[in-house]
Hints:
By secondary structure, the chain is α+β, with helices and mostly antiparallel strands. 24% of the residues lie in helices and 22% in strands.
Amino acid sequence: MGILREDVVVISPGEKAGDSTVISVNCPDKTGLGCDLCRIILLFGLSIARGDGKWCYIVLWVVGKSNTRWDLLEKRLLEVCPSYFSTSGIGLLPAYKPAAKAVGCVPSEVLVFL
């Protein structure tokens, strides 16, 4: 269970002309994530009118140009978000390798105290 990739970054255009576009980002937190997201948004020529968020959920209200490539912006924002697998520890554990069977070894005695 987790969040679908399309739900990590959601860009919702303003309802009326002149309304801010709302960008919501829902991904695991990492050091500098907010700075990375803001830098990308500013590089696209957008202005951040307002922001809110906590932990791994960030909402930004942006104002920009009519010719903004929203699909490319979404792709760039997704690239800086860490995946859930990288922060959960899955895939970070060493692969299990069974120990080689020693030849001529006798199992030690098992003592059970009751």
